[in-house]
Backbone:
């Protein structure tokens, strides 16, 4: 079992149990106590579990259900989504990954003349009856908590796709780059990065300075970040130093012209 996959499964196990002892982790996953301690230390370091005497307790948010996450920071997500939609020109091919903010982006694209490619079942259900949108569904293993298609089948499907831009959400952003909560999701998103000319990250400001289970890519892979006005001046400067165009919605928002579609 790969390191990220083991830690993902350990995190899921701790979430299901609420509290897990080190001996239980060793027995359940067939690992040594020193390996279990290192994995718990890592998960504690990214604020997904709290290390306790002899075990670990779940405190994270990253693998909560889609419905639970959908209502968090909803106003900010809706404002971000409207801004992103305004910057997308008719006729574009847009690749949307699965996430609560990208779902709001899809909602703002209703009625537009676009090609939308996605691995998100909630986005597919939202857009499937929109006659002006040509919808392409990416298949694969559907992760039950998020309704997102992941894994080798999804990766292979994406290899035949070319999009003008990828609009994606993340579990966290640090100086090391972008993070997400599932190793299969990260594998699929890496292929999405390869399939798009531009990478736009849509995220509420709470994700800055937070990591998650799996590292996705460095900051300089991203072309644009659209976020709310809770972003600090320090984080805005860090992103801009990495060559990223930062669009802030809310009181500090800056109006921008829609981006012209490529020929």
Residues:
């Amino acid at each position: 079992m790969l390191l990220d996959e083991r830690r993902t499964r350990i995190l899921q196990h701790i979430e299901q149990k609420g509290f897990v002892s080190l001996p239980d982790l060793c027995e359940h996953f067939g690992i040594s106590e020193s390996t279990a301690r290192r994995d718990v230390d890592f998960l504690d370091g990214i604020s997904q579990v709290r290390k306790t005497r002899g075990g670990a307790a779940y405190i994270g948010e990253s693998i909560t259900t889609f419905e639970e996450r959908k209502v968090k920071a909803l106003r900010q997500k809706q404002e971000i989504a409207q801004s992103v939609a305004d910057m997308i020109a008719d006729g574009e091919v847009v690749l949307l990954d699965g996430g609560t903010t990208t779902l709001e982006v899809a909602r703002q694209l209703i009625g537009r003349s676009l090609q939308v490619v996605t691995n998100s079942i909630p986005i597919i259900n939202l857009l499937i009856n929109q006659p002006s949108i040509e919808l392409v569904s990416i298949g694969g293993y559907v992760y039950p908590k998020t309704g997102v298609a992941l894994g080798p089948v999804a990766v292979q499907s994406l290899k035949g796709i070319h999009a003008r831009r990828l609009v994606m959400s993340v579990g966290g952003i640090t100086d090391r780059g972008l993070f997400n909560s599932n190793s299969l999701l990260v594998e699929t998103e890496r292929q999405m990065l390869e399939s798009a000319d531009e990478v736009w990250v849509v995220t509420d400001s709470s994700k800055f300075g937070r990591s998650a289970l799996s590292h996705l890519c460095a900051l300089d892979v991203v072309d644009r970040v659209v976020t709310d006005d809770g972003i600090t001046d320090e984080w805005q400067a860090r992103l801009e130093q990495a060559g990223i165009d930062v669009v802030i919605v809310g009181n500090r928002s800056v109006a921008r012209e829609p981006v012209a579609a490529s020929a």
